[in-house]
Amino acid sequence: MPTAIKRVEIHAQRKLRTLLRDHFVALDAAAADPKRKVAWCTSVGPCEILTAFGFDVYFPENHGAMLGARKVSHEYIPRAVAEGYCAESCSYMNSDIGASLRGYSPLQEAFGIAGPPKPDLLVYSTNQCREVQDWLGYFGRRHDAPVFGVRPPGHLGLVTDDQVAYVRGELEALIKDIEARFDLTLDEARLGEAVTRSSRASALWHDVLETAKAKPSPLTFFDGLIQMAPVILMRGSQVAIDYYEELLAEMKERVASGVGAIPGERHRLYWEGMPVWPKIRELSEKLFDLHAVVAASTYCNSWAFEPFDGGDPLTWMAKTSIEIFINRDEQIKEAFLTDMFDRFAIDGAIFHNARTCPNNTNSRFGMAQRLRDSLGIPIVVIDGDLSDVRFFSTAQTMTNLEAFIEQLEERRA
Ligand code: SF4
Question: What is the pTM for the complete model shown?
Answer without folding.
Answer: 0.96
